[in-house]
Amino acid sequence: MRSYTADPAAARQANQNNYVDQSGKYIGEFTLAEAVTSRQGTDGIEFSFKTREGQQANYLTLWTHNAKGEALYGYKVLSAIMTVTGVQALEPKQGNIKGPDGNSRQVTAFPALHGKPVGLVLQKVLYTKSDGKDGYKFNIFAPFNALSELTAKEILDGNTQPKALGGIVATLKDKDERTAGHPGAGQASANGAPDDPFGDDLGQGF
Fold this sequence. Notes:
By secondary structure, the chain is an alpha+beta fold. It has one domain. It contains four helices and eight strands. Strands 1, 2, 3, 6, 7 and 8 form a six-stranded mixed β-sheet that branches. Strands 4-5 form a two-stranded antiparallel ribbon.
């Protein structure tokens, strides 16, 4: 018969939400940076992020260029992510990832960002789902270097002491995009974990 020894690390994870559910500052890594295109032809990157505590935040989408090729705000955020992670260029590459059902699918992704330590300030966005219920998602509000906690601007300006991040976190608030007059307005949905097509083991073939 198996014997057991108390495991403090495992104990801490008992009853813990496996998904990020609050606005705030997180440090972790991107497990997937997938190229996506909207129905309108807008290009972007959809990130899956795992904190060092094991919580996940998926569907973090930055729309970088519209159908005309014009740069959008998400391009600035992506450039900031590249700066704080020290990545000079992103080249798309095809590979396979494994879903929770065990089946794999082919994606086009940017593996140069996979596994890179990164800090993210995530903003919770409340919205009304198509069925009228409340839901929420997250925006990448501000990236920062995982070790120094310097923002991209501070790195580019040659600063060595992080000063901006504290102010960003102190003034961070949830963003409410729910339909005005919706009966559920005023509180967030309790179901903050979206369907996760990637699971914990992405089975990346990059």
